[in-house]
Amino acid sequence: MKKLKYLFLLLLFIPTFVLADLGPKPSITVYLKNIEGKDYLIDLLSDFKDRENLIEEIVEHYQDLKDHEIYKYHEDTWYATSLRNFLLWGDVQGNDEHIHKFTYFGVPEEFKVIIELPDGTIKVSNLIKKTSFDFATTIDVNDMSSVAGEPSPNYMKHFGILVLTIIIEVGIAFLFKTKKYGTIVLVNFITNTILQILMVNVPKFATSLLYFISAEIAILCIEGIIYLDTLKIDKKKIVLYAVIANLVTALLTFII
User: Fold this and answer.
1) Are residues 94 and 160 in the same domain?
2) What range does the domain containing 167 cover?
3) Which end of the chain is more exposed for a tag (fewer CB within 10 A), N or C?
4) Are 176 and 233 within 8 A, CB to CB?
């Protein structure tokens, strides 16, 4: 059993990209007012000073926008980001709701909102700083002023993820024929509550792959060590259970 504990401890110091695309992603939601119709384009401007190699690029599914002013526009090294960086997924096409969400690992900490109107006119907001995990801002298209939107952190979403994580891990434990459900519930409540708090209050845990992966590995190892001391099943099954349960719940978090 000591060897298995040492294995979990060793994992704490081994970086891996197995979970690179799992977990909640930071987001920026832009609400537009004083704009009509949906024949416009929108994106986030961010500084490409350290990403010069992307300046002349365009994401494949935006090829038809390469001749638009929004792609050509720049302020020094500030360029439209979703169009160039596949790590930022954005609703760049206009819509009737005038609500646009930008997410994934390329969400910038500082940005400006750029809009191309139907006649090709470009409008750019002031500099905006992202201050929370799920950030929202409202843009008045008349003067491109910005006001912070509704309280950004979606606490119900994170609480729902916590509850589903516990339910699924208990379900998987049932398949492994362990009866220590109370231990599993308590351990998961503590470890995953800490993770969700970090996700909401420390954006780096989602915007940085290393931060997020380290947190997931730490949870796996902590849970594994505790289970080795408490669950009354074969030790190899405990290792298998800890790995499977954490991979499944991490995948669930990504889907949600």
Assistant:
1) no
2) 2-23+154-255
3) N
4) yes
Phi, psi of 245 (to 5 degrees): -60, -45
- Position 134 in a domain: no
Q: Please tell me the distance from the alpha carbon of residue 28 to that of residue 130, in angstroms, as a whole number.
A: 8
Q: Of 77, 94, 129, which marks where a domain is finished?
A: 129
Tens digits of per-residue pLDDT, 165-209? Answer: 888 888 888 888 877 888 888 988 888 888 777 776 665 565 555
Is the domain of 161 the same as that of 223?
yes
Check: CB of residue 113 under 8 Å from CB of residue 136.
no
Q: What is the pTM of this model?
A: 0.57
What are the DSSP calls for 80-102, one per residue? ESTTT-TTSEE--B--TT-EEEE
Q: Please, which residues have CB within 8 angstroms of residue 100's CB and are 6 or more apart in sequence?
A: 29, 30, 32, 42, 90, 91, 92
In a domain, 138, yes or no: no
Residue 51 belongs to some domain of the structure: yes
Digit-coded pLDDT (tens) for 218-253: 888 888 888 888 887 788 888 888 888 888 877 766
- Number of folded domains that form the chain: 2
Question: Considering only CA atoms, which of 67, 83, 55, 44 is closest in space to residue 120?
Answer: 67
Residues 12 and 58 in one domain: no
Query: How many residues are there in the chain?
Result: 256
Tell me the sheet residues that pair with 43. Answer: 114
